[in-house]
Amino acid sequence: MARQHSTRIARYVLPLLAVIGLGTVGAPAEAKRKRTQAIQMTGVQSFDKVFKKAKTANKRLRSAERNLRDSKVALRQTLKLKKRTTYVEGLRELKRRANGKLRVVMVGGTPRLKATDAVPTEILKSIQAINRLTVSMPQSVNDLKAVSKASKKMYNQGRRFPANIQRELSRKGIDGIWSIVVRSPRIAKRTHENLKVIGGMPKRAARVSSELAQISTTLVQSFK
Questions:
Q1: Can you give the pTM of this predicted structure?
Q2: pLDDT tens, 87-106?
Q3: What one-character DSSP code corresponds to residue 1?
Q4: Domain limits for position 169
């Protein structure tokens, strides 16, 4: 009897959640706010089951992005290059300054740069910055492939959340339902933001994968 009563309330609350959610997500202030790349839990079990997986995948993706970004910044700083200098441009400049004293060696299928003669400190630091990235490449490539595949599946699951919410409400009972109603603006906001992050993961993964491939190819060709 209590379950039937909860179900009837859930049918009433569901449209209310949609109205509150749409109002929150569509607020102009939210559109202007800088988008975060973090995945947040909502407190709704069926939602968070997907979002926990997404959080793990996003952590791996952000690690690959951070490794690339940190190495790029270090290379620019050691060679005193402009802020917008690409990694490939940095490698070409390093080749010019090294005067043929660097070569690439393959270690476990991964390119590593080494000096064949005495070189200035800035060249040594550049080698270190590059090798820190190449050491992380195999793991990054595997993670990026997994993230791209998994995120597409998670995004499709997330789009079915409106259909799942009624089952979630029915399980909560009366107190749980009204608890969700009170928290619904936050739930709607976090769900909307999470789906944006998940939806953008394949593109982010492809961008990093492409740049890593370009760096690896340029490294091998430039210092062979």
A1: 0.77
A2: 999 999 999 999 999 999 99
A3: -
A4: 2-222
